[in-house]
Amino acid sequence: MSNASASHPFDQDTAVDKVTDGHYAATVTDRWSALTGHPNGGYLQALALRALGEGTAHPDPVSVATFYQRPGNPGPAEVHTEIAREGRRLATGEARVLQQGREVIRTMAHFGDLRNATGPEHRLAAAPELPEPAECLDPLAELSLDGLSIARQVEYRTAQPFGFMQGAPSGMPQAEFWMRLRGGREPDLLALAFLVDAAAPAVLELGEPPAPTVELTTHLRARPAPGWLACRVQTRHVSRGFHEEDFEIWDVTGTLVAQSRQLAMFP
Amino acid sequence: MSNASASHPFDQDTAVDKVTDGHYAATVTDRWSALTGHPNGGYLQALALRALGEGTAHPDPVSVATFYQRPGNPGPAEVHTEIAREGRRLATGEARVLQQGREVIRTMAHFGDLRNATGPEHRLAAAPELPEPAECLDPLAELSLDGLSIARQVEYRTAQPFGFMQGAPSGMPQAEFWMRLRGGREPDLLALAFLVDAAAPAVLELGEPPAPTVELTTHLRARPAPGWLACRVQTRHVSRGFHEEDFEIWDVTGTLVAQSRQLAMFP
């Protein structure tokens, strides 16, 4: 995860500059914001992970949990990292992202090497069944992206329009769709750690408002093949001000590459 | 979470003694071990959470992630805790459990108050459909519990025998069953943080061996009513040496009280 010659906004905006061992400087930009004006939680997580990855010889984040404490803001940030254990198969560490001296998020992760990982294979769930992206519609095509800068970085394709975008929430907080970074930036594990939080919340189909993420756990299961990513999002339990959102990302070869669950809390 | 007059083994064995602020002494016992001889990961997590809970005014763990680094062992342990943020609705902190000076697990958590939490309610999934516990069988009844000390603390009831226990794995890595602590110790959130890891791994029904947990995230959604807990476990993706296991716990009133996912790694 080098900072050199990064040209895509995702690589530019997750770049970290080493100050001292375990201490990095970064800049949170305004290119990853939803309507709140605050940077997306997956983007902040990717920034934390990128700094953390600098400290271990293991190339791949495989399990990541981020605890969100305060909304981030565009502007300077510090990332403090610690490798708790550098093992043979896994390294474990954490990264804290601070802005103006206050901790915004804390991310803990195991890193490993998914290239060489082997073991028994049992695949008991199916990838989303979607028409080819070219046969799908762009749900953002007729939408104003004012204040939704994240939509300038990520694009989506769906078989049908989202009900909530038509003013008619379906009542079913689940969806399947294609997603990718714009501009030909192919997916990698770091991008997946952002993209699991980059789609419209499933609770919008219940007529509920979006809610800040308080915790996000992601398991990265394989390095993704280049191309579109098939995604599935679902919420099943909205209760006491909290709800979970499950997110799966499958690559174009039909391999599950990321699965996440977040807990969100209504304001 | 007081240490006083604890009489059940779960309360005794998760007790922590304050040494200084943020530093606790504990004893990991041999009463929570599976066949490996190492203490169960959910038990270690409950120990970490109990120490962490001492440092916040918020009574309830609501979201917990534990990263497992090394197997624990019966014997003394230290727990180092840090509250990163004490907010109005949530407090956030982490606990590190060390044995012989080496970090065994690290647990991060949000604490809140589930008694007073309110918000929209949408319940889109159903509790396990199980016969009453009295009409079920005890899957451990004819089993030797030698080396399986955890089974002396937890009991189970199932509608049918588990296939893997009959030497005939079903091929379906999923199950529904009742579970509770033995001895009349009613469930609370701390017990749930243990119980999500206290059942037989679903991959045994694939004919695969048990695998150590490397990460476990649990969302605690409501304080459980007294009584048996209805549980559902499922694994869907076994790949590259890793697999996830999803676990749900519902109380006798049909309320989802805990949902967890763990990532396990074959040795």
Largest sheet of chain A: 13 strands, antiparallel
Radius of gyration of chain A: 18 Å
Could you say which overall geometry of chain A the principal axes of the C-alpha atoms support?
globular
Counting DSSP E segments of at least 2 residues, the number of strands of chain A comes to 14
Number of helices of chain A: 3
Fraction of residues of chain A in helices?
Answer: under 10%
Largest interface (CB within 8 Å) is between: A-B, 55 and 55 residues
Distance N to C terminus of chain A: 35 Å
Q: What is the quaternary state of this protein?
A: homodimer
Low-confidence segments of chain A, ≥5 residues, pLDDT <50? Answer: 1-5
Please state the average pLDDT score of chain A. Answer: 95
Helix and strand element order of chain A: HEEHEEEEEEEHEEEEE
Structural class of chain A: mainly beta
Beta-strand fraction estimate of chain A: 35-45%
